[in-house]
Amino acid sequence: MNMNKYLDIAPEVQEALAAGKPVVALESTIISHGMPYPQNVETALQVEAIIRENGAVPATIAVLGGRLKAGLSKEEIDYLGKTGTAVAKASRRDLPVLVAEGRDGATTVATTMIIANLAGIQVFATGGVGGVHRGAEVTMDVSADLEELAHTPVMVVCAGAKSILDLGLTLEYLETHGVPVIGYGTEELPAFYTRKSGFKVDYRIDDPALLAKTFYVKQDMGLGGGMLVANPIPEEFSMDADVINKAIDEAVAEAKTLGIHGKDTTPFLLAKIKDLTGGDSLASNIQLVFNNARLAAKTAAELSALAKG
């Protein structure tokens, strides 16, 4: 499996892949940049436990000492959590520099997809995906996550995209690049903290086996590229859309006033929204990641059964 000289696959992940067992990739930006320590480490380990409980092997992904890592030890997860935002946030453009200089990097959705694909992992659970930013018709600020979904064959299970983005343009971009956007048990694109956005997904699927089959057929037909599964936050943890949208509008306005742009935008907005909602947004964030981990593990199990025929 491990054909890439820059890649280290953890022994447990390597064994699972060799035996055709289900594996689920996890990103590391959520650990270093998504939450404070020690909550970030507790959440990361809990997500790994949920994946195991649902019959799959977790592979948290990062760049450590210039090595691409598929599967981290508890110590490595703890190191990322403690080091926090001092770890570089690594997107596709950052990988060659971090590897060449032997540095650490926390992987975004895009780089987690790249490393998962190199390792042979087809299913990835995350919180939310990046997208087209508000005002992108002027700034051209489009997340590299969308470009990666266009050509890297990994299924990404998420709670939709945060409504700090332009959700309509995000869907248009994915359609142009031929990426199916599937709502799990919903016809509407969830907006991360809330279950509703007013924007329709391409298809609704209610069963992990059919999700797996759809992805399997896409690859088997030679269409390549990824697939986005939008899994709404559970009802009991969903936030009031008006409250969250008011906080987002306020945060977006402040970012504009302060001249914050590029990759600093999302961390600033999320921190601001957490303050404005009294920390409720962080609690919701954790629950939706757990929910995505469950669905990703079940889907990965169905996918490995299909691959075995």
Description:
48% of the residues lie in helices and 14% in strands. Strand 5, helix 5 (95-101) and strand 6 (105-107) form a beta-alpha-beta unit. It is α/β, with parallel strands linked by helices and 309 residues long. Strands 1, 2, 3, 4, 5, 6, 7, 8, 9, 10 and 11 form an eleven-stranded mixed sheet that branches. The chain is globular.
Quick structural summary:
With 309 residues, the chain is of the alpha/beta class. It is built from 13 helices and eleven strands. Strands 1, 2, 3, 4, 5, 6, 7, 8, 9, 10 and 11 form an eleven-stranded mixed β-sheet that branches.
Strand proportion: 5-15%
Structural class: alpha/beta
Q: What's the overall average pLDDT, rounded?
A: 93
Number of strands: 11
How many H/I helical runs? 13
State Rg: 18 Å
Low-pLDDT stretches are none
The biggest sheet amounts to: 11 strands, mixed
Helical coverage, percent range? 40-55%
Along the chain, the helix and strand elements come as EHEHHEEHEHEHEHHEHEEHEHHH
Task: Based on Cα principal axes, name the global outline.
Answer: globular
Distance separating the two termini: 20 Å
